[in-house]
Design goal:
The longest helix has 14 residues, at 23-36. The protein has seven helices and three strands; from the N terminus they run αααβααββαα. The protein is mostly helical. A hairpin with a 2-residue loop joins strand 2 (85-90) and strand 3. The protein has a three-stranded antiparallel β-sheet.
């Protein structure tokens, strides 16, 4: 099942514990997870998602990082190619926003039957405060 089929049908994925992923859908999800595997891209997605109004201008995003504008643009392009962000040019600036259905797909596929995974005391002890 491709991202397009999921969004057109309005259906959401079932957790991995209920049924195995199809080859196409696993490929789509892997592209999204791979894009989020880079700390800069994960932060970019978070910045856009948490920005007032749900969208952020590239001019606001760039100031947060000690990276060149072409590098920021590359990371934003990877997130767009993975289907996690969309954008629109307004004058000289480009505005980005998160695609909610993509985040819903990622979170839904990782759910367990009992609900979200809660870190155990052992895991919490390993995380520095």
């Amino acid at each position: 099942m491709s991202k397009q089929e999921v969004s057109e049908s309005g259906a959401c994925c079932s957790p991995l514990v209920r049924e195995p992923l199809t080859e196409d859908w696993a490929g789509d999800l892997a592209r999204m997870f791979k894009a989020l595997g880079d700390p800069v891209r994960l932060r970019l997605l978070s910045l856009v998602a948490s920005h007032a109004g749900g969208e952020a201008c590239v001019c606001d995003i760039s100031e947060t990082f000690d990276l060149s504008q072409p590098t920021i643009s590359h990371h934003l392009k990877v997130l767009r190619s993975a289907g996690l962000l969309d954008c629109e040019r307004r004058g000289t600036w480009v505005y980005y926003w998160v695609i909610p259905s993509a985040l819903q797909q990622l979170s839904a596929v990782l759910l367990t039957e009992s609900g979200p995974v809660v870190p155990s005391a052992a895991c919490a002890a390993e995380v520095p405060a």
